[in-house]
Amino acid sequence: MRLAILTSGGDCPGLNAVIRAVVRTAINKYGYECVGSRNGWRGLATGDVIPLPLSSVSGILYRGGTILGTSRFNPCENNETTAHILEHINLHAIGAVICVGGDGTLRASHEMALKGIHIVGVPKTIDNDIASTDVTFGFYTAVQVVTDALDRLHTTAESHHRIMLVEVMGRDTGWIALMAGLAGGADMILIPEKPFNYDKLCDALKKRHKTKNFSIVVVAEGAKPDDGDTVTLGKLDSFGRPRFGGIGYLLSDEIEKRTGIETRVTVLGHTQRGGTPVAFDRILATRFGVAAVDAVAAGQFDHFIALRGEQLIPIPIADGIGKTKMADSEIYEIAEIFFG
Ligand code: F6P
Fold first, then answer.
1. CATH of domain 141-273
2. How far is residue 240 CA from its own chain's centroid?
3. S-S: 95 plus which of 1, 147, 149, 312, CB 3.0-4.6 Å?
4. All CATH 3.40.50.460 domain ranges in the chain, comma separated
5. CA of 169 to the centre of ligand 1 (A)
6. Could you write out the DSSP letters of every residue in 303-323?
7. Nearest CA to ligand 1 atom 13
């Protein structure tokens, strides 16, 4: 059988580990042949399909990004696109497709499965907010990047007696902010799940600065005040979602005005998604890749792989999509003990 793999949506560390695991398992365990659709579904729509022999995945385990490229390309955007994909699948005699992507990609993959394509999904999001899987690979790398930044910002904040505001990824959920804030000793963590109040926030910072001379505040890009909206850049991404960013600068102006304490902003942006995956993510991504090929071999199509406790299990895509996993409120309560 010829097995295709594609990576779709925003990249994250560990994608190459999944590709490597899929190719190695497919060829060595099942005797399949592998091909890659470049730049997500776009490759299958345009015929940009490349062979993936064992040599193509040599030396990529530790590399960030994806050797296949990625895009936010909707395979169901119109009948013509879908027809082109089906044509190329027939032309290349592709027996199954492994789709690595976030909620939007998995939703589109389900629609393609309904059109007769044998699909197995691998969930991916740096934000770690897909409810049906305990963790997604790449997340702990992002947490490590932010934690390292917080360690560095601590020393300079202390030297200059400043408030340091660190804006991190997290559109709808504050997982990265929460976990990195906990690991990096943040004095305040602002997440989308808990709209903040400017008066309370500034009072807490002023109180802290009676005994301490610096503060570290971590803010998720999707955080918002209880009397206002999220801050977007006024632009849409290729899935038509607003591009987030800017809450850090807005907050810092307001905090500085209200507290009189010098406040500086660091926006970590895509540094959180780039570079080499931490060991945990390499292992998880490898396990996801192997489990996806096992699901193909077992004929469990229109399913995606989910981590449940220590187990990786295939679940129907339709059951697993569209459910957002909010940041854990019990963990937030633990983080709060260290605020102020
Ligand atoms: O959805 C994952 C994510 O990293 C968000 O946290 C962020 O808002 C978005 O993707 C950024 O996407 P892009 O790289 O397309 O700007």
1. 3.40.50.460
2. 18
3. 1
4. 141-273
5. 7
6. EEEEEETTEEEEEEHHHHTT-
7. 10
Angle at 256 (CA atoms; ends 254, 261), nearest 5 degrees: 155
Which pLDDT belongs to residue 237? 83
The protein residue with its alpha carbon nearest to ligand 1, atom 15, reads 10
User: Candidates 127, 236, 272: which one to mutate for ligand 1, based on the most atoms within 8 Å of Cβ?
Assistant: 127
Q: Which of 8, 237, 324, 325 most suits a substitution to test ligand 1, by most atoms within 8 Å of the C-beta? A: 237
Judging by DSSP bridges, how do beta strands 242-244 and 232-236 pair with one another? antiparallel
Using N-to-C axis directions, what is the helix angle for 329-337 and 175-183, rounded to 10°?
Answer: 30
Expressed in angstroms and rounded, the spacing between residue 258 Cα and the centre of ligand 1 is 31
Residue spans in the chain of domains classed CATH 3.40.50.450: 2-137+277-320
pLDDT of residue 209: 97
pLDDT range class, residue 31, cuts 50, 70, 90:
very high
254-312 residue pLDDT tens: 999 999 999 999 999 999 999 999 999 999 999 999 999 999 999 999 999 999 999 99
Q: Report the CATH number of the 2-137+277-320 domain.
A: 3.40.50.450
